[in-house]
Amino acid sequence: MAHMSNPTAEPDFKTAADLAGVLPNSATVENGHLHIAGVDMVQLARAAGTAVYVMDENHIRQQLRDYLQWTHYHWKDVDIIYAGKAFICRAMCRLVHEENCCLDVSSGGELAIALSAGFDPARIYAHGNNKTERELIECIEAGVGHIVVDSFDELDRLSALADMRGINQSVLLRVTPGIEADTHDYIKTGAEDSKFGFGLNQGLAMQAVKRAIELPGIDFEGLHMHIGSQIFALRSYAAAIEVIVGFMAQIKDECGTDVRLLDTGGGLGVAYGVPDEPSSIKDYGKVVIDDIKEQCERRGLTIPRMAVEPGRSIVANAGVTLYTVGTIKEIPGIRTYISVDGGMTDNIRTSLYGAHYEALIANKADQPRSTTATVAGKHCESGDIVVADGPIQPADIGDILCVPATGAYCQSMSSNYNKQVRPGVIWLRDGNWRWVVRRETYDDLLRCDLA
Ligand SMILES: Cc1ncc(COP(=O)(O)O)c(C=O)c1O
After folding, report:
1. Which of 15, 78, 152, 267 is found 20 to 30 A from 102 (Cα to Cα)?
2. What are the residue ranges spanned by the domains of the chain?
3. What pTM, to 2 d.p., does this model score?
4. Cβ(311) – ligand 1 distance below 6 Å
């Protein structure tokens, strides 16, 4: 029998249909079951086991194509750089390559995955505020097309490493434009008080440009900024672009140098829940690309090659996580906890910064989400919550619980806390499914254990 709702909570009778825009584009409800890309999520969970990440491949491809379409509509010369930190594996690298996009890596590990997938290093952008010497050497020796330099120490180190190898390494300098993006503090990166990049206001960015122009082994190609993540207000981009194009004009005046490549980072927000209304890729393309063009024209600057680095908006809504309901605890007058076979190890975002998620029961997807419950994980932390007090169908043990919008920053931020084996990743396409990352086993947990 279905569990009863928490009597103190107001049911809002939301349905799975309300989750259009949060679920993948291809999501439908058939015979009471949630389907994605023509695959029955309940049958899939029974066949593949849970917890499991499931992603709609065509949704990912469509997002990349939309970025290409709506940036190239405004300017022919724009690189779409997928930010691998959102979700990376070999299949993802190959997909990005097939869709004629570039790749942002932010560690030697991400670079190694990209190279092992055969990704063209010339189309890789390497990031990180503290790249180790080894990582810099790996980038240079692999022929990484663009290294985004974050500090004076790194600039000097890279110059020496590239020069001794007879290489003139293309470099972007990461600049913090001093703009407060309208988002959570943990994912704001463009403000002055940030560990990332060279501050504009203190004159550090200009010092870095002058040093980059002079240093051997460095080809100063241009500028990079990333003002934050999960940004809904496009005005944050417009404000930052005004500042950075102003800086380009200052570089032209003081150094006589044109910025050949301007990378405005990622950050476009996505819908995690019913009330979220993110900006479209079409509007983003217009604001970002048109603004750069207009600002450059107004200041008499040559319009540079451009680049944007979306991560979350490519993969977040392509993915869902499927769990099995294991226990249900009703605390009368307080709250109902539905515990699942995963939690903060596969999705840390709720515990880390109170991220909002929705939940639905995949085998009751045609029923209203008429109760309110908290979806809890199985780990030894009270903060191990996946969905805090959200609408859901009345749950039973053994139900398949689906949390949408988990394609970004869930698998990539997953852990083995409590020695939980990490879920695998399944990709769906045209009614078929395949593993692209297998589920870990206990042997994987012992792989690095030497004693
Ligand atoms: C430098 C850089 N580029 C791109 C991104 C991707 O941002 P998002 O996933 O919000 O699009 C990030 C995210 O942290 C970043 O740090």
Report:
1. 152
2. 16-57+316-446, 58-313
3. 0.95
4. yes
